[in-house]
Specification:
11 helices, 60% helix, three-stranded parallel sheet, 2 domains, two-stranded parallel ribbon, Rossmann fold, 6% strand, Calcium-transporting ATPase, transmembrane domain, mainly alpha
Length: 298
């Protein structure tokens, strides 16, 4: 909390909100002035020593934000007045109140129209849900694509015919993934999303977890389907046309099963309730029917 109010008033409100406890010191603008320049170690140590600032001038508010950003923090600033504008502009995310001044709203990154701080929390939650769904869709598309590449590469290395024709591969990528990724985007938010610590701004989507899960899933699906293709070509007398139909059906089955595995990066697919994404259940059921009809017609 950074405010121009009296230290005792600031501390009382901060304690009521859970920002401070009995042992939290209140740093005043005078103390910051005595600490020296805002880029000095003493100033940075003073900023890091508390969560409540009182009797702070607009310039000092900007300096505090500068110190926090310099220390590696990702800073969001809320405000509604003209004196908040410099800090709102300097922060990573400036949040202005809907009833605030035009200057504050002009420089802010977002505006809380209803003036309710709880709306910020709801916005952060929706942002986490959206980011999680983007990761899930990418995980699905990359892993299934990797499985198809592995299937073709291993088949060529083993001297076997191509496991799928071009039109079958097109159907697999266009229809299967086309239905699954759209349906997966409707996935509801996972419970406990707000209990996770914030991710680092520098963290890439393809972090170690994504790379590990994509590799394991892609290799597993690719080798299982190749095993059937190898068996059909080596130990049975089935012609290639019908063998390819079986390979297509198996690949569709594997991807339809895998899409449910993509619904969470940390929870088993068997523990994620189906009612959280009815669109996905309906899409997968319809796609299986379409694929079966296509293979029967072929």
């Amino acid at each position: 909390m950074i405010t121009g109010d009296h230290p005792e008033t600031a501390f009382a409100i901060a304690r009521e909100l859970g920002i401070a406890d009995e042992g939290t010191p209140v740093v005043t603008g005078y103390m910051l002035t005595e600490a020296g320049a805002h880029d000095s170690p003493a100033y940075a140590n003073l900023v890091a020593s508390t969560t409540v600032f009182a009797r702070i001038s607009p310039t000092q508010k900007l300096e505090i934000v500068d110190v926090l950003i310099r220390e590696g923090e990702f800073v969001a600033v809320t405000g509604d007045g003209v004196n908040d504008a410099p800090a709102l502009k300097r922060a990573n995310i400036g949040v202005a109140m809907g009833s605030g001044t035009d200057v504050a709203k002009e420089v802010a990154s977002m505006i809380v129209v209803d003036d309710n701080f709880a709306s910020i929390v709801a916005g952060v939650e929706e942002g986490r849900f959206a980011y999680d769904n983007v990761r899930k869709v990418i995980y699905l598309l990359i892993s299934t694509g990797a499985a198809e590449v592995i299937l073709f590469l291993v088949s060529i290395c083993a001297g076997l015919p191509l496991p799928l024709l071009a039109v079958q591969l097109l159907w697999l990528n266009l229809v299967t993934n086309g239905i699954q990724d759209v349906a997966l985007a409707f996935e509801g938010g996972e419970p406990g999303a707000m209990k996770r610590p914030p991710r680092k701004p520098s963290e890439k989507i393809f972090n170690s977890l994504m790379i590990h899960q994509t590799t394991v899933s892609g290799v597993t699906m690719g080798l299982i389907v190749f095993g059937l293709w190898y068996y059909l070509n080596t130990y049975t007398k089935m012609d290639e046309v019908h063998a390819r139909d079986l390979i297509l059906l198996l690949m569709v089955f594997m991807q339809n099963f895998h899409v449910f595995n993509c619904r969470s990066e940390s929870v088993s697919a068997f523990k994620v309730p189906l009612r959280r994404n009815i669109v996905l259940v309906f899409g997968c059921s319809q796609h299986k029917a379409f694929t079966s009809s296509a293979c029967t017609f072929h």
